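Hey, I'm writing a tutorial for new members on how sequence and structure tokens pair up, and I'd like a real worked example in the thread rather than a made-up one. If someone can provide the structure for the chain below, I'll link this post from the tutorial.
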Amino acid sequence: MKKTLLLTAAASLLLFFACTSNNGGSDSDTSTYAPTAPTDYSQVAIPQFSADSAYAYVERQLAFGNRIPGTKGWERCASWLVAQIGRFCDTVIVQDFRAVLWDGSAVPGKNIIGMLNPKADRRILLAAHWDSRSWADHDPNEGNQHKPVPGANDGASGAAVLLEMARIMRSMPPSVGVDFILFDVEDQGGAEWSGIHDETEWCKGSQHWAANRHQPFASYTYGILFDMVGTHHPRFTKEGISRYFAPGLTDNLWAAAASLGHGDIFVNESTPEILDDHYFVNNIAHIPTADIVQNSGTTSFFEHWHTINDDLSSVNRETLRIVADVAMKTIYADFPNEK
């Protein structure tokens, strides 16, 4: 996720009016979603998440080099991700597309989709982006601002959480179909030094998927997006678009975190809207989707956001586990394993 929607109150109302108008109120009436399982999330059985395994997935992604669309590192990482998710899911789909960036250049994109229980009519969506940013445009050193970002926390952490969740959920599937989606070309929006601030220049993969779903008639109860979920000082707040489109899911995620003793990490605080993949999933695909995304409060998302220092040292194993456990407690409370 790349940019805060720094909206005035009036602009916020316009954004929400536009979202409501596009939605038509028919496909994602979030008021109908409610938990079906116990409120004591600490008693909900979930598979055991391996923080070491997830961390290794972060490390492996970075080992390919920059995951900038169209580069050799991107190609190698895509092949690896497809192979890994293919080990854990029943069905794998690679959705190829072309994206035109803010500077007029065209790049290839690959949305990588893994499906558990693909025949299930009722489904949930778990998503992250896997590309890394081409420009470290928020680096304090101007000499670094045209260099690529390693993308350890901003990109690789969310993808790693999804891979590990797919691995362990296979052995203890919830009573719902699960689609794991790794969105591409999320982080290639206009560089700060370009002066271009068009919201549609971001999140190209989720825009493409939302308009061209791999299962166009599948019924999704909800979605969860994971972005920048590996810092050493995690802090997640109830972001505005999540609260508007998926209020019940957002509240349940934060309730699960509190039940697990992580109320100091999943802070019960409402914060403004941000531009992320969930905006387009909500607004185009009409799937109520909540974003678990770092909000440091005093800095832009996290200290090394869009700098050359977003490397492996930015990621903490325990944070990856906490985020995954909170998400799985919420999912398995709603859709417990039936075996």
